[in-house]
């Protein structure tokens, strides 16, 4: 004698006794719902409900679906007018499965809301996955946001497990992301090649990096660099080294964090202490102030780089 398959009822709000349709998940959880609600959010269900009902079928039809209850619950919750709260996703794979289910049932309005939730939950930790999912769903505004946050990935494009979530996108979308990362790197690296963007204030003109009477004076024959509107000045060796090294760091990782977590910044601070004059006038304080301006300018130039459409 075959064992009778047992089913269980979904938790609220999908346990309403006044329901007129049941969606049964692949793990045998029954979701009580209403034809009107499902018809409004999904043309697939709307067409399904217009089919003639067999007299042998129960008064309340039961429709088996291929989704697991952990996927069906957040999907239906987004369409329920009295749910009162947005669903949460345990993993980005769960979020991806809900997105695929919404596409399958052509729940376009819900699909956009899922995009907002995915960005809110996973953007910072899974920018590449969010980019890929956004490309697949046509969320181009989210794709641009995810591409921007992916700039924190150093050397994007090298073999990495970080690309695991991008297997479903086409080569064009992947190339757009890599091109964007590369162009942002070029723009960010160029910031340190001229400092004409610095404000022309007395505080800037008096910074130790180009005003040292010690290590700055032994830099005879060194190249000059434009400082604000003051002209081309020679900078200290330790600061010149910092500009070159931080530029390389930005080329590989064109974002604010590259400067905040920069190894070249720590080296510059240490080398500045080797000069009696730089150490005396707190060159590290001037370098910290400069980095604040540096970060602001990097943000500005990156904002001008657009993800190709």
UniProtKB/TrEMBL annotation:
InterPro entries registered for this protein in UniProt: BTB/POZ_dom, SKP1/BTB/POZ_sf
Protein name as annotated: BTB domain-containing protein
TM annotation in the entry: none
Superkingdom as given in the UniProt entry: Eukaryota
SUPFAM superfamilies reported in the protein's UniProt record: POZ domain (SSF54695)
Domain BTB: 19-80
Coiled coil: none
PROSITE patterns membership: BTB
Pfam families xref list: BTB (PF00651)
Species of provenance: Suillus placidus
Lineage: Eukaryota, Fungi, Dikarya, Basidiomycota, Agaricomycotina
Signal sequence annotation: none
């Amino acid at each position: 004698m075959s064992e009778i398959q047992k089913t269980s009822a979904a938790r609220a709000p999908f346990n309403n006794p006044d329901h007129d349709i049941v969606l049964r998940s692949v793990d045998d959880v029954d979701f009580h719902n209403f034809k009107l609600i499902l018809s409004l959010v999904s043309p697939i269900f709307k067409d399904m409900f217009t089919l003639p009902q067999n007299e042998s079928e129960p008064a309340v039809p039961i429709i088996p679906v291929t989704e697991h209850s952990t996927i069906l619950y957040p999907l239906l919750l987004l369409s329920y007018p009295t749910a009162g709260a947005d669903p949460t996703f345990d993993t980005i794979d769960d979020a991806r499965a809900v997105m695929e289910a919404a596409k399958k049932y052509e729940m376009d309005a819900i699909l956009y809301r899922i995009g907002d939730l995915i960005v809110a939950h996973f953007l910072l930790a899974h920018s590449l996955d969010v980019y890929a999912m956004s490309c697949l769903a046509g969320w181009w505004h989210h794709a641009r946001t995810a591409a921007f946050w992916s700039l924190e990935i150093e050397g994007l494009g090298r073999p990495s497990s970080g690309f695991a979530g991008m297997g479903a996108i086409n080569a064009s979308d992947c190339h757009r992301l890599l091109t964007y990362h590369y162009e942002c790197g070029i723009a960010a690296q160029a910031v340190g090649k001229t400092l004409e963007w610095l404000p022309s204030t007395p505080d800037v003109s008096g910074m130790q990096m180009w005003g040292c009477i010690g290590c700055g004076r032994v830099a005879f024959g060194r190249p000059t660099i434009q400082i604000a509107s003051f002209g081309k000045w020679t900078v200290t060796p330790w600061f010149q080294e910092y500009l070159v090294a931080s530029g390389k760091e930005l080329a590989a990782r064109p974002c604010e964090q590259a400067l905040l977590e920069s190894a070249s910044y720590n080296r510059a601070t240490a080398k500045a202490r080797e000069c009696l004059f730089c150490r005396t006038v707190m060159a590290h304080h001037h370098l910290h102030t400069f980095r604040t301006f540096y970060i602001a300018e990097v943000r500005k130039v990156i904002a001008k780089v657009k993800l190709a459409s």
